[in-house]
């Protein structure tokens, strides 16, 4: 019978956890050693464990080690002992990012051109636009599992709800997964009216979670249990921890929110300036101009009561990040207690930039949530940040989730563990989400499949192996002729040789092409297409090549990702109403017939 994980018996009370975090350290009770000595050991004689930690909607400067005021000591300690990337890019939407992360293949070729909730009917029939992983790709979990790894997954999946596409059937031998864009963090309930319930499954079987729980704690508990159940057999571990934090609904235990009640009282403009200055000071970005956006509201125009409410919304967001970090620390401690930490590689990143929301009071009310100042983000209360604080969470970059500006695409990436050289400064080499799977396979000493896997033809991985950067043998992986294309929901980008082509649609974009030096101008403040028309045309040509090769479809005229999601919510509500009215009608007919039959018998 599997032994009970010790970490489940040693969890600190929340207030004690907050106090411990203030010291910016991790305690290892079994040996008294610290993380530094473990992470500096190199050259393991056995295949390493790999822990892949994916935050949801974490902004570029939301970690302490990336210049944030938010306390994240456990992730920061990992960052101090490995490599922090300053120029790592992903998708601006969650499902496409997750598809590329797990397969090393562009999201269109993997069947996830966009999140399924936002794909318009005009595109839905195309094989690239199914919103679920195609059978023509292999996940790195499948590859690692075939090579003797235990593969475990907990948290948000969002790559398909059908049985064959659940993570349990895509290479993970133990899972606790949630299939939707998000779900409540305290209760087993959906957060949007497009879902009739929260789609949680354990090992491929739909379940109902035992309440109450808190999502970050629950996921780490489950992962510790999975690892512990097979720890004694000597097989290496691939653990994919896909947090719900900090996706909507933004919720956190009160103890964590209270840590930040006075932090954001000066508003989003002050926070954006502070983050920008910190990013320059720590070398995250070069000394560059501050980006400004017309869509950012004037903090001073808000009433005192409105400012108070907005500041707390952001405090809950920060508390949710810190709570996630605390539970990451629990997983680190568990691995140390079991003697596995010195042979474990950690990869920590986010699926896209910070998310903004324009949820209406009507939507909140229909879902049965409150949105009151007093209990904001606690059980029964939903919360989110809007475009203003989302814009600050991605500072000093431009835009945020859904948009192809750097704030939507550029996120933290931390890789640390045995065989990885500690780098004091940020690594500025360009890197992409499709690079993660090839890199993990290389660190595990496993070759990529060539054309076939599991008896079927598959798309080859297009990402690059980052290990030459990680061991210090190379400064760059991408060369001048390499390019990376991107498109989701009509927002597009192309990266080539330090330049970026970008187009953002409405409601916040203008559907115009721009070209930036994204290395020296990460805020995208100076458009270069007029002064360098030859380069601009070259970038357009490369994007067209990418779109043709990867099957990118044009979006319909007047398409809006936000409106498509809203339309699906309305259709779901109308569908439910039709079902209810139909059932009521059938019931009335049945009672009428019963009455007629009864009257006939009496007569």
Count of beta strands: 17
State Rg. Answer: 24 Å
Number of DSSP helical runs: 17
SS-based class: alpha/beta
Strand order of the largest sheet: 2-10-9-1-8-4-5-6-7
Shape: globular
The CATH superfamily of the largest domain turns out to be Alkaline Phosphatase, subunit A
* Mean pLDDT, all residues: 88
Low-confidence sequence ranges: 1-45, 576-603
Characterize the main sheet. Answer: 9 strands, mixed
CATH architecture of the largest domain: 3-Layer(aba) Sandwich
Count structural domains. 3
Calculate the terminal CA-CA distance, rounded to whole Å: 70 Å
- Looking at the chains present, what oligomeric state does this protein adopt? single chain
CATH topology of the largest domain: Alkaline Phosphatase, subunit A
Helix content: 25-40%
Quick one: CATH class of the largest domain? Answer: Alpha Beta
Strand content: 5-15%
